[in-house]
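Supplementary material to the annual report.
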Amino acid sequence: MITEVATNLFWILIFPGFVFTLAVGLVASWLVRKVSALVQYRVGPPVYQPAVDVTKLMGKEILIPQDAHRAVFVVAPLVGFSGVLLLSTMLWLVGVQITFVGDIIVALYLMVLPSLALILGSSASGSPHATIGAAREMKLVLSYELPLVLAFVVVIIKTAGGLEPGEQLSLVALSQQAPVMSISGLLAFIVALLCVQAKLGFVPFDIAESETEVASGVMIEYSGALLAVWKLMQAMMLVALPLFLVVVFLGGIGISVGGLLGGIGKYLLVVVLVILIKNTNPRVRIDQAMRFFWFYCGGALVAAVILATLGNYYGLAWL
Amino acid sequence: MSETVRKSVLAVGPFHPLQEEMEFFQLTVDGETVTDINVRLSYNHRGIEKLSETLQFDQIPFLVSRICGICSASHPLAYVQAVEEIAQVEVPERALYVRTIINELERIHSHLLWVGLAGHFIGYDTVFMWAWKYREPVLDLLEEITGNRNNYGNVKVGGCREDVPDELKPKILAELDVIEQKTEMLTKAVLDDPVLHARLKGVGILKKDDAVKFAVTGPTARGSGVDIDVRHDDTYAAYGALDWKVISQPEGDVFAKAVVRLLETFESIKMVREALRKLPKGPVAAEVKEIPPGEGCGHAEAPRGETFHYVRSDGGNRPVRHKVRAPSYVNVPSFKASCIGEHIADVTLTLAAVDPCYSCTERVAVVDGRRQVVHNYASLLQLSREKTARLRKEIGAPEMKLEDL
Amino acid sequence: MIREELDRRLAEVEEKLIGIERTRDNRIYLLCDAENVYSICQFLFDELALRFVISSGVDAEHCFEVLHHFSADACGCVVTVKAFIRDRAAPEIESITPLIPGAEWIEREMHDILGIHFKNHPNLQRLILHDDWPQGVYPLRKEVQL
Amino acid sequence: MNWKMWSLKKSVWVFHVNCGACNNCDIEIVNLLTPKFDVERFGIKLVGSPRHADALLVTGVGTKQAARRLQEVYRQTAKPCVVFCMGACACGTGIFEGAYHVAGPVDEVVKEVDPNAIIAYVPGCPPKPEAMISGVVKALAAI
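Predicted assembly:
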């Protein structure tokens, strides 16, 4: 009993949960800054920079604006952070086969949490600029959630043939498949990748908070440890979201050495794709983003659903 | 400005990494269209004109070069020309050439700086980084000649303090070649880019008669088809002996102003080359014994327009009145003509096109009827960039490739 | 417009002037009383199409002087209208902003720092002194010491 | 040295306040970001909100109109923070000493709000970007 609790705690707090995800996330966010710097003829920050940034913020004073709703203002970052923490732990554990049926739905919910927390926190801060940011974030969530769910529907249809009825909603079962190797799966993967880009708040979807207009809308009023929690949350999302794509679309991470290396390769592939999109696109406007996600991505996914169903019916795995 | 506006502006701080002077622009909008604009100065008022009355004629160039960091060659030049007019000093010819070289180098780096910032305003941050990278060698040259990257303090009544050493000539010429090549790339990128055409043309038009009414100068006027240039009209230093032409564009929009600045950079490079070649031998300063009573006007063409100094002397060793007019002082009020009726996405860009010493635009707050801040600098910048992105899409422009630059 | 023509046209307003000074080849000072300044500026700006450069306010010993500098760019000549305001207690002069919108700021500035009142100015608010600056103190007057 | 100080030195987020400068110092500060100097190498980053800042780079003499704004910004900055007086004007009003619209050097203005403020000085007109970097390094080594 005690050992079981200890093991679970270890999984959540040390490996592969909090500490490990954090480490990977901080390195990933360094990668993002470094690549951008190289494009601009600069050297860029050293590899430990994101970690030091966060450590420093932890030691700083927390200022709460006078007009802010204190409780919500303080709790919001923690909510978002715990959402990502749970999500990443769950995803890593997929590798060691400990999970429950239907967890893909839980994962989807957990993925919305950071955005919701951001909206809550910035609306609570009482600053007009943060409010503009919150409104934009809200519209953005509305635009990309639907295509994201549809993308998973494609995957579930796609894998329906090979799995037991109950297993279709389980990440472990899904991670054994690589639906990206088919047309419909590839379409779904591309759309999901763009949704992840938006969730990470990267160009071209960094509409709510962007590094170039550093006034950074939603987070403008946060300082000290609370800001650090946001930064940590963003770093961990940089791990959790690509990992989710790896698990669902690319066949997951194996426990063997080869599987592990392959998994790391797949993760890096997704991250590099994200960085490339970030560095080669100008920012879009919020209504453009909505139109893009609803019409173009939605249309592509409807086609993917049809293709996947047809493929199942006729037994054509490549469709 | 009402107290509410003030407060929200303070609370959120209209500050930005690229912020410069503290002017506060207050825009009134109707929907998305600007209907009125009001400016509050004073944040940067240091009382230079009064201070100047307490300093000696020879000390004042150091004071006036600190009026504006980017125009720190043209302000002292305008001042000493006013004093030389009172004292009837014959300035040695070599000094005139040295003044020309310093002023044109200043113009090159100032225009490159503007190109970078304009890139930043429309969302091409890479252009910003690159233009500033190419600007660095000019500052290094100025440092080698005068001893400082900015605030050269190189002119004095009767001549110059530092000479351009002859052994530095080859280095300056070599650097100029590199700068010319890079500027050519930037210019090509601007003039050929369909997105920039769509984004900048027809935006923030300052009509020719408005330009005259608001008495604008420099590239702002020349972009509106008013081809005035002090260097040409009331020629000073060595400009009369050099071969160059005044660049002007009739359209009056942001694009025209960008074109004027870019083409002027080439003229400046050409002028520095020619001035170096013709640089005569001789002393760089004449002796000035005393400043007799009298009054004088001096003006010089700064990168942003005409710098005007009026000096009155009563025969003592300090002026009794020294009036300074920087180019932005007449260029900035022209926003009243160019911004009203514009979409707010274009406001930052229109303000930036004047190069108002250069980022006062970051003091912008947009208010609606209830006097609440609805946009700040960041969101305006955002709108500006979104418009670029939208136009890119409409035109179907290819991604901007790094190697294009 | 060549220089000779400028000289000829300037003679048209001669009756409104106290005198004309030519300190150097291309510097012309038109001396006048405060009452005539608007009509002279109107002539220079509308008829001769000179460019308005700036105004300087000067605290001279027995009067205030307001100098409107104009530039004749075609011949590189600076034409200055020098108006004398003899009433030191309540200095007042006609505003030229209704004629030249570009003069708005400088007239507000002179109002701030010299205390000269500009009649018919559309918006004579404080421009460059800070919000708590005491009323009635004009820093550019000679009696104010640093 | 405790972890707070160590990390503060390795990751300095700066916020730039102009209170009546001639633009030279300001341009040199922006220059720090550009490829030639690239202070992101040292973890120095310009941020857009004083709440995120560890250091205020103050330029200019502190005119009477701008001084109150500087005090407001200082109050909004999360402590601990260092105030850097960039350039001769900020250090001691420089050539503008005694002018009627100058509230005083930046350190006096800040000390009106917080007598214990940590203030560092980088003189020069303008300080060269190298001097600014070196000033920041030295100031951080001293605390």
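The helical segments of chain C are 3-10, 37-47, 104-114.
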